[in-house]
Amino acid sequence: MKNKKGYPQKRGTSYEKKKARDHGAKRIGGPGNPDAKKGNQKLEMKSWQRPVPRPEVVKARRKGVTKFISKSGFTGPALQYGKKRKMKLYKGKKRLV
């Protein structure tokens, strides 16, 4: 996918790198992989304008993600699911669940 100037889109990779560094993790990325890893913990990051819905949290959980970081937060059902499954959900640096 290319942007207006013909360059490939970065798709939030700079946000992923920054948050991985903030949480002391190493960025992995790539399709089907978690965005970062810290020991046994797998991290997923989303740099979206809208809150992350429940289906995205479920997909991440199926990948083995235990820590989910979002720029704009999570919907109510996503927070309930994360709490039930004992996931760590963050809005930026603030832990929500």
Short description:
This protein is an alpha/beta fold.
What does the model show?
This protein has 97 residues and is of the alpha/beta class. The protein has one domain (13-95): Trna Endonuclease, Chain: A, domain 1. It has three helices and six strands, in the order αβββαβαββ. The protein has a six-stranded mixed beta sheet, with helices on both faces. The chain is globular and about 45 Å long. The model has no long low-confidence stretch (mean pLDDT 89).
Task: Describe the protein's topology.
Blueprint: H1 13-22, E1 26-27, E2 36-38, E3 41-46, H2 54-62, E4 67-70, H3 76-84, E5 88-91, E6 94-95
Parallel strand pairs: 3-4, 4-5
Antiparallel strand pairs: 1-2, 2-3, 5-6
- Averaged pLDDT: 89
Label the CATH architecture. 3-Layer(aba) Sandwich
Structural class: alpha/beta
Low-confidence stretches: none
Number of H- or I-type helical stretches: 3
| Total strands | 6
The assembly state of the depicted protein chains is: single chain
Query: What is the spatial order of strands in the main beta sheet?
Result: 1-2-3-4-5-6
Write down the secondary-structure element order: HEEEHEHEE
Using only CA atoms, what is the Rg? 13 Å
Q: What is the CATH class?
A: Alpha Beta
Return the CATH topology: Trna Endonuclease, Chain: A, domain 1
Number of domains: 1
Distance linking N and C termini: 34 Å
Shape category: globular
Strand content: 15-25%
* Proportion of helical residues: 25-40%
| Main sheet makeup | 6 strands, mixed
